[in-house]
Amino acid sequence: MTTHTGRTLVLNPVRSDRAAEFEAFVHDVLEPAVRAHGADVDLQVQMWRARAPESGNAGVTFFAFLADTGEMEHLDLVGPFHAFYGEERGEELLQQMDELLVDFDTWRDALRPFEDEAGVARQYWWQMEDVSTIKVTRARTAPL
């Protein structure tokens, strides 16, 4: 078994009007591909969603994924999508996922700063709720 240390936080700024579609995509499309063809490690990824968007957040709902790995290659989606769905269909699905996300300028405008006494924003925050946990377990055969 490959050992790994650290954690990785991935933020996904999703169009609020398509947040339910993003959540369904993760469970129905992404999760099966990653379970079948993800990194050769035991991996757990927690998925959180920001609570209901408030006015002034530019129509963005943030999803956060916290993976119990510090290695970005363990979180690659291209390989698992190509292996599970085929290269052409995998690319189409990755494009569909990309269309659910907002561009950087919209993402930046949706940040909710926590300002200090001088009105300077030094931290950004969201109240999150747990959505699910994705567990990937690799079956291994011991050498003879």
| Widest sheet, order of strands | 1-3-2-6
Shape: globular
Which spans have pLDDT < 50 for at least 5 consecutive residues? 139-144
Q: Give helix % range.
A: 25-40%
Nearest-integer average pLDDT:
80
Please summarize the sheet with the most strands. 4 strands, antiparallel
How would you portray this structure in words?
It is a single chain. The two termini are 16 Å apart. Helix 1 crosses helix 2. This protein has 4 helices and 6 strands; from the N terminus they run E-H-E-E-H-H-H-E-E-E. The strands form 2 sheets. It has a 4-stranded antiparallel sheet, with helices on one face. It is an alpha+beta fold and 144 residues long. Helices cover 33% and strands 28% of the residues. It is globular, with a radius of gyration of 17 Å.
How are the elements arranged and paired?
Layout: E1 8-15, H1 19-37, E2 43-50, E3 60-67, H2 78-85, H3 87-100, H4 104-109, E4 113-115, E5 121-124, E6 128-136
Helix pairs in contact: 1-2, 2-3
Brief write-up:
By secondary structure, the protein is of the alpha+beta class. The chain has helices spanning 19-37, 78-85, 87-100, 104-109, and strands at residues 8-15, 43-50, 60-67, 113-115, 121-124, 128-136. It has a 4-stranded antiparallel beta sheet with strand order 1-3-2-6, covered by helices on one side. A two-stranded antiparallel ribbon has the order 4-5.
